[in-house]
């Protein structure tokens, strides 16, 4: 157990870098359809932010040979929390290294999860300052909602595939001070865990990789804040040729509204409506879903998450790639 | 073609009678979950109306050995339209008979579709008059929205299964003056048609019965008017043990929002959110969907209508009955 | 009373022409914010259509010295209906004249309402044919929903101010075959009437002009089909500097969801969410709202329609123009 | 400034006790309209909870001579946090006293705000355990959503009126470790502050009492989680005779969706749709709204908060009581 006073060490998911073999398609997806602002372009990378993302970028799109997550970075709740988390990671032999020089962020501590995902922790950020024409009259809004596509507000969470869920979950609990709010077990095997150190249902989730691979990404989620916008987004994706994997519907696990699509580079992206269940109880007991309850867990409505993709496809992809993703 | 001046002969679907082998379950479904008012109980039948249904009842639930539609009745747009429609039916050898004495309605002309569904036409109705405590401050509302369950406003439309779609469609066009707004073809075979004689996308639809049966019901639809209520309904059905077949999502055909469930007697019921596309053009050309377009036609979002039930299950049921219906 | 067989003579509102002293602002409003497509530009006029408008244009924006409606045109339900309506107008001494040559429409019969509004009737239209890149996969949709702003689907209805409501209402009933679904009376004076000849609550409404002027426009309404989009639109208008007069809320009269704003030229525009109450009963009795019921009639939620503008401001404007309109 | 490690000391608002001179009306409001479950009845008090409230009750309704808040209790994030907060309160001369014996809660520390509101802190709670028939299939849900009225999920936040905002705000910051996310200033005077120690925009707000009174309640808010439900609630309140003060609309301050009504006892109740802006940045800078920005701050849509009630009416009421409250 994390010591009582170290329960809120991770503030939120700050940024993710995705690789894409189809950068034009991927950028069209995030900029033209999801209305993200471009804040910088350098080399093979473009930096993007949603209109309520508070920093210079929440998504970096980099050209690469295959779709995958390069890394994801969590912001700690204080500089001291960052120091404590690094000390804990080191005690756990999850050693890492400092990096620096990324646009819009200060020094960043990089480490690998037990399954091999590249993660990072950081405190230092450069707050985004909107130029006058992009300033919103809504003072908590970092910039005006753009008039392009169906704009997402901000990045929301990360969902990782892992060969084994439990070691990743335990390292996030022990070293990052996260709490597992919900989990799924299939007999003796833990097949999913949803974690945060705030009252969000999750900043990070881990699910069992049915292909048995290591270190893959299931999805990155972006936030609308309004469930209707996931319905609007489905209509947009349908007409503009983006394959819809599942949704819009609402998960029983986390009670959040979802829509899953594949961006043109091949990464799975979730559009997240409202935040679902907010974990206000400080001593909320982890809910454990068993296989006989899993229908409600996966969807409250009639959605069947498609077995041929949802539980097996991740990035980097493993052959054969399902047709729907290539569409 | 119907003559120009006889284009609006059918005003709307007025009422449906369903049989159920589980009357307690079926009444709990319509009264406790869908908030319908009971207006009369007689013999093995209970008469129900939604809070915006204008007449004494829109749904009659009758105990019977198997789930099925007993009959459905359309109201004409005038007494003269009723006479004209009957004359046309007789010319087409779709002869029928007058009946009378049903609670809340006057004389009614009963006939069979070419596939054997029992249909009726009527003009005479008894308008529902709410007692003072049920009168709504909203003057177009026939009664207050009740505080029970998630109340439907009114009946909306009927969807019939037929061994062959075309003859049924053609008789509705020729004799009832309906217009087919959208249809589906699979090669040479017409597999679905959506018809009305108003600007609604459909009062009646006909779909091909994949089991090759005659005269069965696919579903009766009730209207919420708000898409969110189909989402709310899905959550209610999930927690109260009503099997959800598909949705909530939006059809491409008709652009309407849908949720399909099986009431405890076994009849499929659709909860209909907003009305979708309103056919304002008086010379709207029938849209024909082909199999390569059918994914968008069936759902704009990610729903896959389940082949094991959606295209094969109707009432009266044919063995084997899918497990989901029995649940 | 209109004869029974002539009840559906007017199909819908096809087009409106607005004058604006600020054409750049007005076009930015309709194109950049409301996502209307431009289909032609000629002289001082620009022709626009929503993505589900079926013809070449539903809105013509013309530069002029003051904000006003130039004219509005209703499409009849058949060519014969057009002839009948003209004959009736002539019998009623509401004579008019044929015009021709307007882009996208054929010959058009122009006449004045008893209060002096310029109206027109027409049958001949040129259907809009989307080029391949604008074709929607949703076959009932005339073109793809654009990725610009918060796109309206189509034009919806017209609301006219009149020195006296009753003569205008009666001429629409008698000569156009419209039916008044709801009306408001203040003692002996009829102050509002909502009419259509379809099951829409209204294609045209008339309200008493509290300034006593003749022939003015209260508002033109554009249709979203989804109530949430009126909420989204309010947020957009707020941040992009468009003055909001009232809403989003829902009227008791018509049960429709509304948002009223002033476009930069000064005309009041309504954004219309869902269609509200659909008048399915063919013998629906006109509902009459009295002053003691008017709070519910004007808004079901907490909106107070602002007396300083809503009941007095119309276009062309009469001095003094309220500050909110000029903002 | 609160020390870094003591930033999350208050978990959430656990419960409020309201007095009402009209207990039958007040209970009808909360039970029949808002679908709250009754968990106990004792003496002049009834204990209620929303279906997602995790403890035995979140609202206690007590008969009393006038509408007012008896007290409100915040739950700390740990037993140690409770000790630390009490120590801090004592250092600040905001001494209080332990009480015990309240149904469903353990020992509770009661104290007064500098303005005289009775507040309490507690850690010990009895978790609500649903009997089998009320258990939800959604595991994070403490009980099934009932079929009565339009059920609220849970209590959300508290809004206090104070003669002077600043001393109350500062005591909450200093002694409870809360952070002020947004505030309003009118020249030199602070007129409102929204605070929490989580990522919610606020657990408690304080607004200036325009009547200059001390220790009054502005409103208690209950949470729907879905903005549409505030619209549905407005319709319900309208037809069932509950006076609507303002909304549904969205505040610029906090970006939350709101609806304000007066329960039959006279207390103002807010129905809260989605949570609005979630304060993910751990170093979020307080936003300060000035009077020239206040229109957007109070409502993003067209709502004008009514000056004759919103800024002057609180409970206990001061004569003259506005007519709308008595309605």
Distance between the termini of chain A: 46 Å
CATH architecture of chain A: Roll
Total beta strand runs of chain A: 17
Helix content of chain A: 10-25%
Please describe the biggest sheet of chain A, giving its number of strands, its sense, and whether it closes into a barrel.
9 strands, mixed
> Which structural class is indicated by helix and strand composition of chain A?
alpha/beta
CATH level 1 class label of chain A: Alpha Beta
Treating each run of at least 4 consecutive H or I residues as one helix, how many helices of chain A? 6
Radius of gyration of chain A: 19 Å
What is the domain total for the residues of chain A? Answer: 1
Largest interface, C-beta within 8 A: B-C, 50 and 50 residues
Oligomer: homotetramer
SSE topology:
Four copies of one chain form a homotetramer.
Chain A: E1 10-20, H1 23-33, E2 37-42, E3 45-49, E4 59-63, E5 68-76, H2 79-91, E6 96-99, E7 108-112, E8 118-122, E9 154-162, H3 165-176, E10 179-186, E11 189-196, E12 204-208, E13 216-223, H4 227-239, E14 244-250, E15 257-262, E16 268-272, E17 287-289, H5 294-298, H6 323-326
Parallel strand pairs in A: 1-4, 5-8, 9-12, 10-17, 13-16
Antiparallel strand pairs in A: 1-5, 2-3, 3-4, 6-7, 7-8, 9-13, 10-11, 11-12, 14-15, 15-16
Describe the overall structure.
The structure is a homotetramer of 327-residue chains. With 327 residues, chain A is an alpha/beta fold. Chain A has a single domain (7-125, 150-326), classed as 2,3-Dihydroxybiphenyl 1,2-Dioxygenase, domain 1 (Roll), CATH 3.10.180.10. Chain A has 6 helices and 17 strands. In chain A, α2 packs across α3 (165-176). Chains in contact: A-B, A-C, A-D, B-C, B-D, C-D. The interface between B and C is large, with 50 and 50 residues.
């Amino acid at each position: 157990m994390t010591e009582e006073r170290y329960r809120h060490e991770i503030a939120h998911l700050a940024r993710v870098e995705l690789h894409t073999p189809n950068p034009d398609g991927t950028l069209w997806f995030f900029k033209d359809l999801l209305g993200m602002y471009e804040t910088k372009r350098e080399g093979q990378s473009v930096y993007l932010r949603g209109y309520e993302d508070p920093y210079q970028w929440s998504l970096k799109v980099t050209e690469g040979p295959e779709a995958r997550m390069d890394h994801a970075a969590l912001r700690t709740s204080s500089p001291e929390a960052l120091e404590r988390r690094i000390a804990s990671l080191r005690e756990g032999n999850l050693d890492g290294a400092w990096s620096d020089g990324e646009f819009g962020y200060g020094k960043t501590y990089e480490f690998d999860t037990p399954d091999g995902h590249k993660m990072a922790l950081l405190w230092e950020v450069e707050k985004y300052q909107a130029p006058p024409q992009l300033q919103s009259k809504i003072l908590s809004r970092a910039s005006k909602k753009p008039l392009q596509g169906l704009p997402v507000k901000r990045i929301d969470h990360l969902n990782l595939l892992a060969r084994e869920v439990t070691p990743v979950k335990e390292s996030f609990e022990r070293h990052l001070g996260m709490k597992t709010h919900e989990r799924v077990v299939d007999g003796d095997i833990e097949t999913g865990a949803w974690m945060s150190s705030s009252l969000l249902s999750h900043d990070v989730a881990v699910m069992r990789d049915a292909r048995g691979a290591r270190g893959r990404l299931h999805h990155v989620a972006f936030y609308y804040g309004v469930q209707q916008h996931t319905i609007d987004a489905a209509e947009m994706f349908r007409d503009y040729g983006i394959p819809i994997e599942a949704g819009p519907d609402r998960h029983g696990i986390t009670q959040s509204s979802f829509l899953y699509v594949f961006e043109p580079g091949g990464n799975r992206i979730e559009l997240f409506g409202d935040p679902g269940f907010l974990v206000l109880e400080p001593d909320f007991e982890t809910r454990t879903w068993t296989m006989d309850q899993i229908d409600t867990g996966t969807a409250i409505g009639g959605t069947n998450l498609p077995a041929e993709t949802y539980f097996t496809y991740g990035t980097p992809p493993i052959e054969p790639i399902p047709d729907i993703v290539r569409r």
